[in-house]
Structures are given as structure tokens and as C-alpha cells.
Amino acid sequence: MQHPMPARSPEARRRALDVRARVALYAAAATVVFVLERLLPNPLPWVRLGLANAVTLVALLDLGAGPAAAVVVLRLLLGSFFAGTVFGPQFVLSASGAAASWGAMSLGAAVGARIWSPLGLSLLGSVAHAVTQLAAASRLLGGGDGLWQLLPLFLILAIATGVVTGLAADMLLRRLGAARAPAGP
Amino acid sequence: MPAGRHPQARPRRRAPSPGDWALLAVLVAAVPLARYAVPAPGAATRIVVRAAGAPDRFVDPGRDTTLAITGPLGATDVRVQDREVWIAASPCRNQLCVRMGHLRAPGRALVCLPNRLMVRFAGGRDGTRPDVDTITR
Predict the structure, then answer these.
(1) Which of A39, A141, A171 to mutate to test the interface with B (most CBs of B within 10 A)?
(2) What's the ipTM?
(3) Please, which of A104, B7, B71, B132 could form a disulfide with A128 given CB 3.0 to 4.6 Å?
(4) H/E segment holding residue B47
């Protein structure tokens, strides 16, 4: 005799739909930020401010690691499609950096939620992003230590971009929290 | 639970927290240490041109040279003049490698990922071959 699956409560269904809707919104916002950032003048090739990672961090702290991963994947695919770099070497760099950033921020949020604010988590993510991109680029170019000589420069840039995106994520989270607060006494 | 706050949302500290400052201090301190984590480039005795899938080419920076390096997208034009090297033209879409400008000393590299090319200065201590080949077009 088969036992039917317990039906989800209306609250659980509403919550699941709410998560999916927010993932879609965050992915759309991250994609727009990613595409617009590429249009900005960039004196340093390869270096991006990574403001899209601020959206990933907001999604992580708002929805959790799983939905944030979905935001990252969607942003990578959509952003690469609009940039015309789908599955090219730049996509490999973007994907490896984004995965490392998501992993570092998720781990940081899991073990250090009482230690770090979004700023600290963003620093973890940006450093992981930079080191992983350097490793991936070195691998694409046949290995060797030529690119690793750029490590100090990449670390400096990662710290700077991590601070900016962390502060941006913190501001966004505060605005979101204020927007969702119950109105009135 | 406050209205609108998702059950999976995590409590968080306000920025900047003491932990943020500590992490920032550690990362800033790591920057000079990172210089010792990689082999020092040494004096700029040669230019190394690496195209993925091909043996490294070595160029004397003291000799003005033009190289055509063939990659998956086509030929990349690498110029050496007055002990500087730069990518003059590339078949890649975004031309980031061209915008990287001129290299004059070790510590940086010109990279074209779509065309799988890297150009850098190197010295005698980086394990490359001691002899120098010059390729002209």
C-alpha cells in the first residue's frame, strides 16, 4: 500500500515560491550590475570591481547558501551570454572565481556569522575569487609561475574591491531590512 | 520572526565589526609576504613568449623584434623595441591584451587568454633555458 507524500502546507508552498522569486530577482540584478560594470572605463584589464558579488552576498545572507549558488549560476550564464563569452576562457575564469567566492563567503557565513559582517565576508570572497582566477589563468596558459608574480597586485586589488562590495552589500541589506520591517507601532 | 525576514536569513553583525578589522589587517599583512611566496623574477635578461601548446620562445629584449604568435584565434602581433615589449595587435574580441600597454621590467605579464598567449620578462633564475633564440618576421 503506497503512502501518499505529505502535502506541503500553504505556508511552506508560499515560502518556496518566495525563495524562487527572490532568486530570480537577485539573479536579474546581478546580471544587470555585471553587464553595466563591463561598460565602465577600466584602466586595469582583467580587474573588475565585482559589484555583482555584492548581490551574491546579499542573496547568501538573505536566503542561504543554496539559493545564493543558484543566483551565481544564473548570473554567470546570463552575463556571459550578454557579454558573448559563453564557455570561452573568460567564462572559465569567471566561473572559477565566482564558485570560489561563493564557497568562501558561504563557509565564512556558516562558521563566522558572529565574527564578520558582510564586509568581512566580502573580503573572504574577493580574495578567494582573485587567487582562484590567478590559478585558473595560469592553468589555461600552460602552468608555470609567470602569472603568480602578479599575486601581490591581485591581493591589493582584491582587498580594495572586497571592501567596496562588502560595504555595498551591507547597505543593501540594511535597506532591505528597513523595507521589510513591520510598519507602525 | 519579523515580517518579510526569510527563515534562512542569518543574523549578522553590522559593518565594520572587530572581526572585519582583524581580517583586513591579516590580508594587508599578507600582501608583502606574498612576494616571497613566488620565485623572484630576477634581472630582465630575456622575454619569454608562451603560447599554450607550443614550446616557450625566448627573445633578447635588446634587439628590436616583431613576432607573430599563432593561437586558436589567429596571429597576435608582439613587438619588442627599446627594451620594451607590447602586444600591438590581437585577433581577440575585447583587446584587453593590447590595452595592457608596454612591459619594461619583470613582475607583470601581458596575457591574451582567448588566444592562449602570455608574454613576460624573465631572468636567469626562473628555470628557463639559458640560451636565447630570436625570431624575426
Answers:
(1) A141
(2) 0.82
(3) A104
(4) strand B46-51
